[in-house]
Amino acid sequence: MSTTPDTWWRSAVIYQVYIRSFADGDGDGTGDLTGLRSRLPYLADLGIDAIWINPWYPSPLADGGYDVADYRDIHPAYGTLDQARQAIAEAHALGLRVILDIVPNHTSDQHTWFKEALAAGPGSPERDRYVFRDGKGEGGSEPPNDWHAAFGGPTWTRTDDGQWYLHLFAPEQPDLNWDNPEVRAEFEAILRFWFDLGVDGFRIDVAHGMAKDPVLPDLGLPEFSVIAHEDRPNHPHWDRDGVHDIFRDWRAIADSYPDPRVFVAEAHVRPGRLAGYLRPDELHTAFNFDFLKCPLQADELRTVIDCSITDLTGVGAPATWVLSNHDETRHVTRYGRAHTGATTPLRDRPQPSDLALGTRRARAAALLMLALPGGAYIYQGEELGLPEVEDLPDDVLQDPTWERSGHTARGRDGCRVPLPWNGDTPPFGFGPPASTPWLPQPENWKSYTAEANQADPASMLHLYRDALRLRRTTPALGGEDFRWLDSPDGTLLFERGHGLLCAVNLSHRPMALPESHELLLASGPLDHDGLLPPDTTLWLRTA
């Protein structure tokens, strides 16, 4: 299926902007809208189709902005609502769509609604917007059930009047009650507010967690992670069927606009369940966490690719592909380890990483990802080859997992270090020379700056630009045709349309290439005899 202006999202390459760490325009150490606007030409030149901006709303930042205090405004450190309008307009003028984060599972405990709930007391309409319950045991002194929070500790916090409120994440993030019509109406109004300002779509945070079993039964588990697949059907708070009614209503709102808006789901679900979120009357696309987490091994990747395409084809949805994001160890670092798959977002026991090997593999993985049919996501800085920063001082860590785990899990700050743009010393152009970024940048990042990448024709940045240019201009990459070709163990070989071959060598020996094909792009140099070396990907134009 070829794309049209209304179906641009089927093959879009979307760049994730973690705004706090992207570019600092006013020198306070925090990324902002002024910084983002100054770098929009860089993003357009990269060759992407859209930007996805992590939460830019007013927030106490207990969880990096995923604790929203006001869904209709901009965090003061990032700028103003007028600046947001200007950023959207400037992005559109450069041909870039804009996707925002929406956080519907929970609000901040500083949100007006939650303050009203605490003041109103048990049984009030204000409290019914959230999930409040009486406790168990003598005097209600025990939590209502045995659930564990994603960031560590219990999912319940007791209020001064003795009731308990639910938070699947941190205490500063009380869960909303999606059985309450007022909650549903409020978020529909929030969607319309931003759509009316010109936003092209939303990424839905924790899309699989909004509906809860009203009985709130015990799970009987000693611990869990938000990222882990749950084997049990009818889970009391993950991937419940009730979310689909919500998303049908949202899709109707998106489709009501002349230029239809789009949704992408963050949904960690059991195998075979993701397609249910992407039926024609629900969401448009979803992140492919199976691909992100897959070890860099040919047989496992082939299985994930096949399952992703097959499952979603059944509902007419495209697959998406992603290597890193703001919750995972950067893939340059992961791919330099003995185990190359993503295993946990907490990163409590970092293993040694060979960054030269990881970089070579990351280049190969980028060309694999960008050759597959469907959409792709680029996390800011991966086009610069940035590794994870795993030696941040303890006293600068801000991820809630650090405190909630009793300082045993360092959290996700290592993939959120502000970007290096130019120069030889921190802040590397992230902000004015005298400014201090909110997380410290490594001194050796001078070789990773956009400026240094631009000066090196063999850099990661040039690889991404070349791949994205070819993706736009090569007809075979514009559709959704895909078929595997025979290849040796440890390798992948597939054809797109009738014009492009992608060969990926993840084995330990050189790979012979098909004859009489034109080399379009390679992630690394070929052997002198024309063989494809290990940990290398190339694109070939067929005759």
Produce the secondary structure layout.
Layout: E1 13-17, H1 33-46, E2 50-53, H2 81-93, E3 97-102, H3 112-120, E4 132-133, E5 156-158, E6 164-166, H4 181-196, E7 201-204, H5 242-255, E8 262-265, E9 285-286, H6 289-293, H7 298-313, E10 320-322, H8 331-334, H9 355-371, E11 375-379, H10 400-404, H11 450-455, H12 460-473, E12 483-484, E13 491-496, E14 500-505, E15 518-522, E16 536-541
Parallel strand pairs: 1-2, 1-11, 2-3, 3-7, 7-8, 8-9, 10-11
Antiparallel strand pairs: 4-6, 5-6, 12-13, 13-14, 14-16, 15-16
Helix pairs in contact: 1-2, 4-5, 9-12
Explain what this protein looks like in three dimensions:
The structure is a single chain. By secondary structure, the protein is of the alpha/beta class. Helix content is 24%, strand content 12%. The protein has twelve helices and 16 strands. An eight-stranded parallel beta sheet has the order 9-8-7-3-2-1-11-10. A five-stranded antiparallel beta sheet has the order 12-13-14-16-15. A three-stranded antiparallel beta sheet has the order 4-6-5, with no helix packed on it. β13 (491-496) and β14 (500-505) form a beta hairpin. α4 packs parallel to α5 (242-255). The longest helix has 17 residues, at 355-371. The two termini are 23 Å apart. The mean pLDDT is 94.
Structural key phrases:
543 residues, alpha/beta, eight-stranded parallel β-sheet, five-stranded antiparallel β-sheet, 12% strand
User: What is the number of helical segments per DSSP (H or I, 4+ residues)?
Assistant: 12
Straight-line N-to-C gap: 23 Å
Beta strand %: 5-15%
Instruction: Describe the main β-sheet briefly.
Output: 8 strands, parallel
